[in-house]
Amino acid sequence: MKRLSLLSALLLLAGCQLQPLTVSTNTEPQTYWVSYYPTQCNLAPWGDTLETTAITDYYTTTVGVTVYSIEVTPPAVGFISCSACGCPTGQQIALQTDATGKATLLEHGFVEEELVVVDENLGITEDTETGITEDSEEASEDAEEISEDTETEITEETIEAELSAEDAALQTRAELVQSALTDYYSQHGAYPDSLADLTVQLDATGMTYTPIGVTPADYYDLSVEYSTGKVLLNP
């Protein structure tokens, strides 16, 4: 009988010392970097400034996305740009946001960037998506070639002369679309929700129209896919 009582007491004591297992479910949200590249003659959606606070306030307040971080990068040394409207300025505005913010910003003229890690000790850049590395010596040679190119003056006429017949036709159609958007804005005080709302129906093949701002739109991006790359046009 005493043995049974002692055993019961030990089991009771062991039961009191058991603690429930707690599993932490806290996880950091996955974030993404997207970038915006301003172009000549076109006012950025947030206005004529590169202040990080102003840019962040615009996208968190007006557009309604979560911005975790922002980086504003000036044109790289040796950057070559034309003076024509629509040509890139060489500036880059990068925002870090969540999946929902990424989807929204991609609709507002941003593009998703692949993350590149720079090892300052080894002088090697690594693309985290492909694992491909590039020796800094080769990158330096490329930079020297770009620097040499800056000695050649590039004019708007030279760039237009290098356009293929297909790209030249696309450029003409893009100008017609922008002219129709301007006429629409003059009549309605805002830009249309889609190109189908224009009073004149135009061939928009190779172009992507994105109204920007709280409806009705007071700004837009017109992405034109040339054979040499994408050009972003704004009012």
What can you see in these coordinates?
With 235 residues, this protein is α+β, with helices and mostly antiparallel strands. The chain folds into three domains: 28-113; 117-154, no CATH class; 163-233. Helices cover 34% and strands 21% of the residues. The chain has six helices and ten strands. Strand 5 (116-119) and strand 6 (124-127) form a beta hairpin.
Annotation, overall tally of beta strands: 10
What sequence of helices (H) and strands (E) makes up the elements? HEHEEHEEEEHHHEEE
- How big is the Rg? 28 Å
The number of distinct structural domains comes to 3
Give the terminus-to-terminus CA distance. Answer: 95 Å
Query: Which strand order do you get reading across the main beta sheet?
Result: 2-3-1-4
| Estimated share of beta-strand residues | 15-25%
Number of helices: 6
Structure summary:
With 235 residues, the protein is α+β, with helices and mostly antiparallel strands. Helix content is 34%, strand content 21%. A hairpin with a 4-residue loop joins strand 5 and strand 6.
Task: Kindly list the characteristics that best describe this protein.
single chain, 235 residues, alpha+beta, 3 domains, four-stranded antiparallel sheet, three-stranded antiparallel sheet, 6 helices, 10 strands, globular
Chain-wise SSE layout:
Blueprint: H1 2-17, E1 32-36, H2 52-63, E2 67-73, E3 92-97, H3 99-106, E4 111-112, E5 116-119, E6 124-127, E7 133-135, H4 136-149, H5 156-161, H6 165-188, E8 207-212, E9 219-226, E10 229-233
Antiparallel strand pairs: 1-3, 1-4, 2-3, 5-6, 6-7, 8-9, 9-10
